[in-house]
Amino acid sequence: MNLNKKKIIIANMKMNGSLSFNESFLKNIKINFNKFKNLNIGLCLPYPYLFQAQKFLQNTNINWGGQNVAKFENGPHTGEVSAKMLQEFGAKYVIVGHSERSTAYCESDENIAAKFEKIKKYKMIPVLCVGETLIEREAGIMESVVSSQIKTIIKIFGNEIFENSIIAYEPIWAIGSDMAASPDQANKMCIFIRNLVCENKKEFKNFNIIYGGSVNPKNALQLFASESLDGVLIGRASVNFDEFSHICSRAENGK
Ligand code: 13P
Hints:
10 helices; binds 1,3-dihydroxyacetonephosphate
């Protein structure tokens, strides 16, 4: 992790929360998180609750965003939410390509690429999730799997689209499993991703790679010590105020 850079902590709150839970959770964050001066923190909430993030987190050091977006601009797409709508609610980050979506809704890499472009068009920061299954890792093909996920976007839009964006390496076997990748596994893949995206290009000013998958207060410190990781994407632990706050403290203080 580059110590001169602010670390990125993104909460993927998934389908959790309620009006009353969010109100106390967000108020708690507003009061207690202003001590984190060296972090870029973003909470990705379910769509209906974005207004609460806007209400409680405006004018704080905490940002918010969505967990998905439509690939379309607008129109007859029942159930979809556009990038422009997310922007209207002040979203800064948008998770795209999460494996829980690509598996359940058969999202293709081309679909994900189209969504990525929409997020960029509306000046938000995509958090593109990539990662391999356990079978793919055991077969030793994790790099080619991740490479093809990223290359679809590069092929359509060019490497430049990755300026002002985040790639989250989320091995599918580590999500919700209590079996986080080791710092070495995460490190190796993040170096691979950086080389792939930055190939033949000068350094991006703002391109970051984070790790997600069973991040908790216990393993956070080791992950934050990894040279090539710019931060973490947190699932379960992000909806537990104490655990989330603990992980942020570890990122802020390095202990
Ligand atoms: P867990 O932290 O619950 O394993 O979830 C990770 C994740 O999917 C974040 O996007």
